[in-house]
Amino acid sequence: MKKFLMFLMLIGTVHAATQLGINEKLGTMVPLDLTFINETGERVTLKKLMDGKPTMISLNYFRCAGICTPQLNDMAKMLGRLDLAENTDYKVLTIGFAEDEGYELAAAKRQTMLKTIQRDYVQDAWHFVIGENNSSGILADKVGFTYEKTVSPAGVVDYLHPAALIMLSPDGKVTRYLNGIEQLPFDVKMALMEAGQGKVGPTIAKNLLYCFAYDPKAKTYIFKWEKIAGAIMTLIMLAFFIYLVRTSRREEDHQQNKGDK
Fold this sequence. Notes:
Layout: H1 2-17, E1 21-22, E2 35-37, E3 43-45, H2 46-50, E4 55-60, H3 68-81, E5 91-96, H4 103-116, E6 126-131, H5 135-143, E7 145-146, E8 148-151, E9 157-162, E10 164-168, E11 174-179, H6 185-196, E12 210-211, E13 213-215, E14 220-222, H7 225-260
Parallel strand pairs: 4-5, 5-6
Antiparallel strand pairs: 1-7, 2-3, 2-6, 4-10, 8-9, 9-12, 10-11, 13-14
């Protein structure tokens, strides 16, 4: 029992060190009264932004030097091919979580992305917003999107974060996660249709990509070895747990055999 308790303590330590990423909260209700600032500087609620439609959400920051732009570029490409009527069948929200970014950055990024869509697209279907009174952080917590703010020795602020699309039903229920940068239009269509019905669906198996810290001086990304170490430690702890179970069983069998004799 003592060995097992020690094992649980070690697992807890590893778990605490590996929270960065998507911690799925399927079925969770997101409060629709959260307020955001849209591209024109207007204060608007999540309920108004969603307009009673199933909604896909991406969480990004607009100065991101990593995966945010590729993710948004892929979203624009995918939306151009999506076999649903935008602004009628669904809404799209890109929510900025960086504390120091204004709505002007959101507006500029939105215009850039809308221009890349290779067809006439109803612009009111895709909004870029920033948080008000930590609404972005609250929403991120509700949907299990965990990111980490970093500050370099030179004072450069950056964020470590995953890339995913998160589907909400019209009443704000988390129904599905689509991990990664590239999404197939068919997968998104099915996810939106299920979200419209309030159906919770399993996550499509895909590697979850992360944005690492960017070192502008060295012009390279800083790989976070803690993540790999955390994964390795988890495997080691799992192997240790199996070893403990098997050892305990052998000891019990040995004691039982002695007792039978």
